[in-house]
Specification:
The protein is of the alpha/beta class and about 190 residues long. The protein is built from eight helices and seven strands.
Length: about 190
Amino acid sequence: LLGAAVVIVGDMNEKRLAQARSFGCETVNVTKGDPKDQVEQLLGIPEVDCGVDAVGFEARGHGRDASHEAPATVLNSLMDLTAAGGSLGIPGLYVTGDPGGIDESAQRGSLSLSLGTGWAKSLSFTTGQCPVMKYNRQLMTAILHNRVQIAKAVNAKAIPLEEAARGYAEFDAGAATKFVLNPNGYVKA
């Protein structure tokens, strides 16, 4: 994947972890304890060069806290896990307000971040929506030349528009599938 020696995917859902392993990723099940310990078992050291928070504000804790909402846990864990001088990509959604947040601060979109850790380690942060167009040509070329099997990697499944509600419900429930709406039947299975 774009030159990375090892890609480690962390998740709570065993089906999504199995999907990540199917195309060569190492995996960390965050329900099993501290991701840092699991990374050390994989790499021999408890740190990575860079990390990606693709979860956002709806994150849950890890280990025994995996069933509880913990909006800052992914960012704090990544800052702890990332080596000095490393970088964090944060395409995960963070909102300015969450009426269903776990406490008053979370409801205002204010999270308890260990920013001092990031500062002390000179970490670089890139946040916001993914700059899709920046990578579009490179990725499309790799797909067209069979260097990347993206549909397999994300377990893509085309569904008719009439099945959209079911697809969204399955995705919300944690399905290890990316549903592609196919209203006109152009995408063949």
